[in-house]
Specification:
Elements lengths: L21 E4 L5 E6 L5 E9 L8 H10 L9 H10 L3 E6 L3 E9 L3 H14 L4 H18 L3 H14 L10 H6 L2 H11 L5 E7 L3 H11 L24 E5 L5 E10 L7 H13 L4 H9 L6 E7 L4 E10 L3 H17 L4 H17 L4 H12 L6 H11 L3 H11 L6 E6 L2
């Protein structure tokens, strides 16, 4: 009988088993990756388009396109699209990120044939009705006006502007930018970007021969490309100079603090080690920043750091909100943690804890075929192969106190951070 008074034995996680996709390329250039799970009754069809920009870059146009792409076609109104998808218990979800726009369809396998034409219609024949665009602009102007009253939102805007300037990663919405949105620009971007040669289709779930045939009939046989070939240009980022930016708000009760700088992305060999040190420093609930500034000092409810990978860059950031009377004390403690990270070795217990947390999180994120597809997307759109995950796992397992200090001296320098404070210093 199981003795529940004894804790279960701990085992180190050694290897991960990742499912790799079957690869197809349709005649029209559409790249297709298939993750099969025959025991599922679900299918997810995710079309991912690389965002295309012209100068000057206007990411607001891309977010508007993502929100409005299912708001009507020449043959279906927004309500009809929603009703047809809902009737079959399916789900159609557009998504936007800095580098890609995606449209995902979730449906039971048996209903795929009924809802796939709706998805095809959305991807090839969207019309962006003027009335829906006016509603989108009005609602988002109001949301922006409210957000501009929030210190954390202002700090985030200033942060991205100082790191990435007027590029796609640095531009944030303004009231004037919403007023300049128009249907002609949206349709031009839609026709330029939503074409087979610029798309990647990731199919996951119960992908039978009938499902593939259904996909091919619509998205290979009927989906034509534009005659204009797309070219993608790396954005020209401004040279980064650390700065202290204070937006003083004497009436504020809390200060929003955001620190950070551009850094390496997933394509760099040191990236997994940087992620490890970031996790130890501020990347999970038991991190040093949380233990010091939340648990010990009580300055904030939450504080965290992150290392993010973008297509053309990466960034490191720390974010928190504190009472205005502890703004300077919080910055002092953050600086102290940077100093400790570089000058004092981490204990074996702390390193083991972070190793188990990161490897456990990785395994925990592989609970379904859909999450295996997500892992594939992370490497595919970074131009990497599955060797990345072997490198990731080996790096995490081999981290030591001296390796943590080495990474800290190279990538974690308090003096090289831009420091944004909205509130009172």
């Amino acid at each position: 009988m199981l003795n529940r008074s004894l804790a279960p034995e701990r085992h180190h996680i050694q290897n991960m088993s990742l499912i790799e996709p079957e690869t197809l390329v349709f005649d029209n250039g559409l790249k297709v990756f298939v993750f099969r799970a025959e025991d599922q009754e679900l299918v997810k069809a995710e079309f991912v388009f690389q965002n295309h920009f012209v100068s000057p870059e206007n990411p607001l146009l891309h977010t508007c396109l993502s929100h409005m792409v299912k708001e009507g076609t020449h043959t279906r109104t927004s309500a009809q699209i929603a009703e047809e998808i809902d009737f079959y218990g399916s789900y159609l979800m557009p998504e936007y990120s800095f580098d890609h726009t995606a449209v995902s369809l979730y449906t039971l396998t048996k209903h795929l044939g009924a809802v796939l034409p709706v998805l095809y219609d959305v991807l090839t024949d969207a019309i962006f009705p003027e009335m829906e665009l006016e509603t989108y602009v009005r609602n988002n102007r109001q949301t922006l006006q409210i957000s501009l009253q929030k210190n954390d939102y202002l700090a985030r805007r200033l942060f991205y502007k100082h790191l990435f300037g007027t590029t796609r990663y640095g531009v944030t919405p303004t009231i004037e930018a919403y007023d300049q949105l128009n249907r002609e620009d949206l349709i031009a971007l839609y026709k330029r970007q939503f074409q087979a040669a610029n798309a990647t289709l990731i199919l996951s779930g119960n992908i039978t021969a009938e499902v593939l045939l259904c996909i091919r009939e619509l998205f290979e046989g009927q989906w034509l490309n534009s005659s204009d070939e797309l070219t993608f240009v790396r954005p020209e980022f401004p040279s980064f100079t650390p700065a202290l930016v204070l937006e003083n708000k004497p009436e504020a009760l809390q200060s929003a603090i955001r620190l950070g700088m551009p850094t390496i992305n997933r394509t760099h060999a040191d990236y997994p080690a940087v992620q490890f040190v970031n996790t130890l420093f501020g990347g999970y609930f038991g991190s040093r920043l949380m233990r010091n500034i939340r648990e010990d000092k009580g300055y904030t409810y939450s504080i965290g750091s992150a290392s993010a990978s973008l297509k053309y860059s990466g960034l490191f950031t720390i974010a928190t909100e504190v009472g205005v009377e502890t703004t300077q004390a919080t910055l002092t403690e953050i600086e102290r943690e940077f100093t400790n990270l570089r000058n004092e070795g981490a204990s074996d217990q702390e390193i083991d804890l972070v190793k188990n947390y990161m490897m456990g999180s990785m395994l925990g994120s592989l609970e379904s075929i859909f999450s295996h597809a997500d892992k594939f997307k992370s490497i595919y759109f970074s131009g990497l192969g599955y060797d990345y995950y072997n490198h990731y796992s080996e790096t995490i397992q081999q981290m030591t106190a001296s390796r943590v200090q080495d990474i800290a001296w190279r990538y974690f320098d308090y003096d090289k951070l831009t420091k944004i404070i909205v509130g009172t210093l």
